[in-house]
């Protein structure tokens, strides 16, 4: 190679290095994901202020804010029993919108609502369970029996006894129908506008039974005004000392848990969803937050996104056959 050719090749090589050096910072910037979150996180809740879901969201907001370094703002969007909020989250294309969603809206929404507007399995990314609780099987104080004797009486009474709920398709109605199917009961159903009215009906002896959330039952139970036969899932004794799971009272194999979980739209990156999950788990390990949830009648959630997916799949297997057997329960 001549000296002139060598010098020409060297100049071209140096030029290519200079172009690469100029391009490298841009390539590095493109390869590094932007920091998340960059602005406040909107936590959508499907129930109004003062509801259990709102209490849980506001209990979580401060520790999540501390963990994420951006404010977490609770956005109440009540309507259609929480479906409105779930649909809003499922259809969002904003990675700063998340939802605190009821278990039914993460599991059986397509079978429960004729026009759900989303498929949870396709539209939502599970993040983690925020809080869960067993429902409490409560009896009218007008009944003379208690405990296992009363449970035997339910089967003997048949359709002469009734249970109350806030209406067809609510978690309390579906859980009782699961219990009826498991136990072979034929108890009738009476719908009321809400759980407070169900409690009043129990106290007056209008209905004999109801599955109710601990947050509503605890004050009356402590005062000895409302008998509690048992809880539908593990952890009931942590909320009501001395009250056992129904599975230990002759209903072995039955379990149902009422829970709320954080979920985000599919538009979120996996990295952002994982960071929110870590922030949630960090918050739920704080003793002060755990105590606050228990005072509200809830047990702190546990597990990661994979554990929540397994829980979702298990509840779909539990509830889907029931809903398919009763197509008239499907709501608009």
Architecture overview:
The protein is globular and about 65 Å long. α2 links the parallel β1 and β2. It folds into two domains: 41-132 and 258-329, Bordetella uptake gene, domain 1 (D-Maltodextrin-Binding Protein, domain 2, 3-Layer(aba) Sandwich); 136-248, D-Maltodextrin-Binding Protein, domain 2. Strands 2-1-3-10-4-11 form a six-stranded mixed beta sheet, sandwiched between helices. It has a three-stranded antiparallel beta sheet with strand order 8-5-9, sandwiched between helices. A two-stranded parallel sheet has the order 6-7. α2 crosses α12 (270-284). It has helices at residues 3-31, 52-68, 83-91, 103-107, 109-112, 120-123, 147-157, 171-183, 195-204, 214-222, 236-239, 270-284, 287-295, 305-325, and strands at 41-45, 72-76, 97-102, 124-134, 136-139, 162-165, 188-191, 209-212, 228-231, 257-265, 299-300. The protein is built from 14 helices and eleven strands. The chain has 332 residues and is an alpha/beta fold.
**Beta strand count:** 11
Strand content: 15-25%
**Secondary-structure arrangement, i.e. CATH architecture of the largest domain:** 3-Layer(aba) Sandwich
Distance between the termini: 83 Å
Helix content range of the residues, please? 40-55%
Using the alpha-carbon principal axes, give the shape. globular
Number of domains: 2
Q: Helix segment count? A: 14
Kindly provide the name of the CATH class of the largest domain. Alpha Beta
Order of helices and strands: HEHEHEHHHEEHEHEHEHEHEHHEH
Radius of gyration: 26 Å
Q: Assign the CATH superfamily of the largest domain.
A: Bordetella uptake gene, domain 1
Largest sheet: 6 strands, mixed
Looking across the biggest beta sheet, what order are the strands in?
2-1-3-10-4-11
Derived structural class: alpha/beta
CATH fold description of the largest domain: D-Maltodextrin-Binding Protein, domain 2
Regions with little confidence, pLDDT below 50 for 5+ residues: 1-33
Report mean pLDDT, rounded to a whole number. Answer: 90
């Amino acid at each position: 190679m001549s000296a002139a050719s060598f010098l020409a090749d060297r100049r071209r090589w140096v030029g290519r290095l200079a172009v690469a050096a100029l391009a490298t910072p841009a390539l590095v910037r493109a390869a590094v994901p932007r920091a998340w979150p960059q602005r406040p996180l909107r936590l959508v809740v499907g129930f109004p202020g003062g509801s259990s879901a709102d209490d849980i969201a506001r209990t979580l907001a401060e520790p999540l804010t501390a963990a994420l370094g951006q404010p977490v703002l609770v956005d109440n969007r009540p309507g259609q029993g929480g479906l409105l909020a779930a649909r809003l989250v499922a259809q969002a294309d904003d990675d700063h919108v998340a939802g605190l969603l009821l278990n039914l809206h993460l599991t059986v929404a397509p079978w429960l609502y004729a026009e759900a507007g989303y498929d949870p399995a396709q539209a939502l990314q599970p993040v983690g369970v925020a809080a869960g609780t067993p429902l409490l099987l409560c009896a009218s104080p007008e009944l003379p029996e208690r405990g296992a004797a009363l449970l035997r009486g339910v089967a003997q009474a048949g359709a002469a006894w009734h249970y109350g709920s806030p209406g067809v398709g609510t978690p309390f109605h579906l859980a009782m129908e699961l219990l009826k199917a498991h136990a072979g009961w034929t108890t009738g159903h009476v719908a009321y506008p809400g759980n407070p009215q169900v409690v009043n009906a129990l106290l007056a002896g209008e209905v004999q039974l109801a599955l109710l959330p601990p947050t509503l039952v605890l004050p009356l139970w402590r005062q000895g005004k409302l008998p509690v036969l048992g809880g539908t899932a593990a952890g009931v004794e942590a909320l009501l000392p001395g009250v056992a799971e129904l599975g230990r009272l002759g209903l072995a194999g039955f379990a149902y848990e009422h829970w709320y979980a954080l979920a985000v739209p599919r538009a979120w990156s996996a990295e952002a969803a994982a960071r929110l999950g870590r922030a949630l788990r960090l918050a739920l390990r704080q003793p002060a937050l755990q105590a606050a949830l228990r005072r509200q009648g809830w047990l702190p959630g546990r597990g990661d996104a994979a554990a929540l997916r397994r829980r979702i799949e298990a509840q779909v297997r539990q509830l889907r056959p029931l809903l398919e057997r009763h197509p008239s329960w499907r709501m608009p």
